[in-house]
Amino acid sequence: MKYSKADKVLPIEIVEIIQQYIDGEYLYIPRKVGKEKSWGEKSGTRNMLDVRNKDIYSKYLKGATIMELSSEFYLSDKSIRRIICEQKKKCSNST
Fold it and tell me: Where would I find the Mor transcription activator domain in this sequence (predicted)?
């Protein structure tokens, strides 16, 4: 999240009103309802993890073991199993 200086983006009258309630402290202004971004959407992290998880599932289907995948992707065997299960559900829902 990027910070903006209130006096650079708001009219001085609004800044003065806000200062009556909170003077010199940080204030978070949430996005409008319906304009929220989901986790990882802006940074691309969600997309990167989706690609990684598809890769894990593909390698699993080609015969890679849970332990091999765990070692290759630096994840616990429990995480690998969860990813495989999630990918399996996605594939069965899309058909």
Answer: 12-91
Question: What is the DSSP secondary-structure string of 51-93?
Answer: HHHHHHHHHHHTT--HHHHHHHHT--HHHHHHHHHHHHHHHHH
Residue 54 inside a domain? The answer is yes
pLDDT digit string, tens, across residues 34-74: 766 665 666 778 889 999 999 999 999 999 999 999 999 99
Q: Which residue has the tokens 């630096």?
A: 74
Are 73 and 80 a contacting pair, CB within 8 Å?
A: yes
Domain span including residue 54? 45-93
Instruction: Please report whether residue 26 resides in a domain.
Output: no
Q: Which two tokens stand for residue 73?
A: 């992707």
